Amino acid sequence: MLKDKIMKGQTTTLTYQSSPDGLYGLHRHLPDGSENIHYLHTDHTSTALSTGLGSWTAVTDETGTVVDEQSYDVWGNRRDPATWTSYNYTPPEPKYDRGFTGHEHLDGFQLINMNGRMYDPVVGRMLAPDNFVQTPDFSQNFNRYSYALNNPLMFTDPSGKFLFAGITALFDFAETIFTKGGLEFWNWNKDYFQNAWSDFDPSAEWSKTNKAFKIDMGLFKSDPNKTFGGRVLEILSRFTWQAPQTLLGYSGSVIHNLLGGVKSVVYYGGATVVESYSEGWGGITLGSYINGAKGITADPDNRLFQHEYGHYLQSQTSGWFYLSKYGIPSALSKDSHNQHPAEQDANVRAFKYFNKHIDGYSGWLHTGLNNNAMNGYDPSLPYNDPANQAALRDGRLNLDWFDYLLGPQIIIPGLINAFVLNSRY
Q: What is the three-state SS of 293-317?
């Protein structure tokens, strides 16, 4: 990650350097052209075996000299690192703006930017409520302004919204102990005891905890092809305009991962692509979450991803109407599923998107087994040929009058659309 720090009209470019254990240094490119590295020291990285928060407590230069030191109270307020007492005067300006749990401090406002929401460490509360009650059987979740279940010494909230990465880490830890022989110290020399702990690494790409964190962060990924304002609206729409499918897609991805079914999590164009270990079952897209069979990749040349990304484009356009107009009718389609109007529309949207944003795009499979063919489109003709453009227009599926009449319900309009659309092909 790159960041420019401007002081007295001069710019220092910072490159954040990370390892599997998190950020460890800042490569600095100074205004005079020289370069050096500042090393980060935290209270210790938070894992299922550690209650460390990952807060920045010291920064040292290449000689080991401390160039900045910080300390925080339980809720994240800055305090004097020498005495651990609250400042009764204007605190000195820190060298960098990150601190408590590694998040960005807005010291002029006494707030901490936790990505999804702003956090006020003075009162220990978020400035906006969490959109989801994560575990209804735990009373602390019902104060949706609270921070980390009101337990800031045990948990962090990396995205400002969800604790599923932390909860998944606890599941991994419990699984290691109770199902993989992690407590059988008397069997120290047995391979399965040693392997139980060697296989427990929440920071590793293959771990469920790492994938849970990526699923959490998927809520805040946006399409780089959009303007800044467009990217902001894309993220906000997931909690408003696209809320029903966002909730289903996020929850389904989390459960899929907890059950051990997720192979990888990657991103493309604002979508979060969740690859399964299971083969051959296709894919399902709900909101920005694309869950697909083994082999799906976030690549415009990947056949399954091509089609499923079209469903994400549908979701962005149709919002609360997505499930009733596209989701339910698609699930209830008759034979020749690929010919269903909702599926043809997904192909058209994705094909037009990739041709718009990728110069000389040629990765679409029009013919052969499991192709994403579009009715009336002739791949032997240029993309901009009038006949092909007409075919793409004819392949679009828009809302009907009864969709507006019934409003953004789900079940009844969904069943009506299933019957109507099955009669159209």
A: CCCCCCCCCCHHHHHHHHHHHHHHH
Contact indicator for 291, 305 with CB cutoff of 8 Å: no
Residue linked to tokens 């990749």: 297
Mean pLDDT across 187-200 = 52
Cβ-defined contacts of 165-168 (< 8 Å, 24+): 165/209, 165/212, 165/213, 165/216, 166/46, 167/134, 167/135, 167/212, 168/208, 168/209, 168/212, 168/254, 168/257, 168/258
Q: What is the 3-state secondary structure (H, E, C) of 237-267?
A: HCCCCCHHHHHHHHHHHHHHHHCCCEEEEEE
Partners of 13 in beta bridges: 4, 29
Q: What is the structure's pLDDT at 128?
A: 83
Q: Please list the residues that pair with 50 across neighbouring strands.
A: 47
DSSP code for 205 = T
DSSP 220: G
pTM: 0.60
- Per-residue pLDDT reduced to its tens digit, 234-248: 999 999 999 999 999
Answer whether residue 168 shows pLDDT above 70: no
Instruction: Give residue 131's pLDDT.
Output: 67
Q: Considering only CA atoms, which of 117, 154, 153 is closest in space to residue 132? A: 117
Residue ranges covered by each domain of the chain: 2-133+143-151, 214-422
Query: How far is 304 from 279, CA to CA, in rounded Å?
Result: 12
In what helix (H) or strand (E) does residue 113 lie, and over which residues does it extend? Answer: strand 111-113
